[in-house]
Amino acid sequence: MTKWFTFLSTQYSAKFISVGIILVSLVGCSQSIHPVPIAEERVESPGITAHDVRQTAPSKMEFLPISRCCVIGRSVQGRDIYLYLFVHTESFEDSMNLKPNVEKVLILGGTHGNEPTGATTAHRLVAELQKNPHLYVNRYVAVVPEVNPDGLAANSRVNANGVDLNRNLPAANWRLTKRDNAFGGLSPNSEPETQALTKLIERFKPDRILTLHSIAEGRHGNNYDGPAEQLARRLCEKNGYPLLKTMGYPTPGSLGTWAGIERQIPIVTLEFARCRSTERCWTENAQALIEFIQNTDVETCRSEGEKTCSQPSEDTRNKFGR
Ligand SMILES: [Zn+2]
After folding, report:
1. How far apart are CA 277 and CA 280, in angstroms?
2. DSSP state letter for 219
3. Phi then psi for 149, rounded to 5 degrees?
4. Cα 226 to middle of ligand 1, angstroms
5. Residue 127 in contact with residue 228, Cβ under 8 Å?
6. pTM
7. Which residues are catalytic?
8. Which is more confidently placed, 224 or 18?
9. Residue 39 belongs to a domain
10. DSSP of 240-268, one letter per residue?
11. More confident position, 247 or 7
């Protein structure tokens, strides 16, 4: 069987020392924006203990909800980049093997370090998923709350090399630009944070991606790339934010271009209003996040093809914002 998680250990095999299955209380690990790992890999069993499993009738407990916390890479300054994976599976070992016909959802936060509500809201989502396993029945949900941990630590949009990680993807339209706060790096995929993200997407093969950002009040909304217009509209219904087909300025080397337009992975960039608190962002978007995880219209959208799904036009290729 293909063990997609093995790529995690190949890069860090020396430090991937198993500590066995550690059952921890659920809420604790996700309250902090910078969780301190028990080990390189932690294993959590949300809301379920061995005692609970024994007490649960087999007919009601066919699959055990499991969350894993792994390190998928390290930042320029050596900070760990965490991935939380939620899955209902027959065993912990089996959670290493992704089944091909199960939906895979990827949610990202903290790509821009000066947009902390993306990260804090993603952490809040992790906590909610740990407490409520029914939210991710029949799907894999992967959450990376802090794509840019160095930027979050410094309250900086860019990473420690001064690179905008949402301009560093190896998209066809990546280009060398001047060193400002949208600098895309000296070459595409040059940054360790970007490499961790692209490797994750290539191995995990998500069916859809949601990335959490923030922008000036009044410009917030649900922006999309690839075949994600209907999905973005569903989020609009839940959070009341506008649908944003474009934002206003080019974003060469963005995740939306690389994953959405070039790989046709439906991707929504959810832009919170920057001045709003984490609590307000969560309150406004909790239902939208659940909708994104549970949405079943994506296949319909794909099967309907170009008529109803957004296809890249010259206008959207030169996409704005984020
Ligand atoms: Zn952003």
Report:
1. 5
2. S
3. -65, -35
4. 18
5. no
6. 0.78
7. 271
8. 224
9. yes
10. -PPEES--SS--TT-HIIIIIIIT---EE
11. 247
CATH number assigned to the domain comprising residue 243: 3.40.630.10
Strand order in the sheet with 64-74: 42-44, 64-74, 80-89, 139-144, 103-109, 208-215, 267-273, 221-225, 243-244
Q: What is the pLDDT of residues 212-233, one digit of tens each?
A: 999 999 999 999 999 999 999 9
The answer to whether 198 and 189 are in contact (CB under 8 A) is yes
Residue 322: inside a domain = no
Three-point CA angle 115, 200, 315, nearest 5°? 60
Domain count, the chain: 1
- Looking at residue 62, its pLDDT comes to 58
Instruction: Give the domain extent around 252.
Output: 6-317
Is 6 a residue whose pLDDT tops 70? no
Under the banding of pLDDT at 50, 70 and 90, the label for residue 79 is very high
- 273: CA distance to ligand 1 center in Å? 11
Residue 250 lies in a domain: yes
**CA-closest candidate to residue 84, choices 147, 145, 15:** 145
> What is the 203 CA–ligand 1 centroid distance (Å)?
24
Q: Which residues contact 97 (CB under 8 A, 6 or more apart)?
A: 1, 2, 3, 4
Is 1 part of a structural domain of the chain? Answer: no
- Where on the phi/psi map is residue 155: left (φ > 0), alpha (ψ -120 to 50), or beta? left
Look at residue 209 and tell me whether its pLDDT is greater than 60. yes
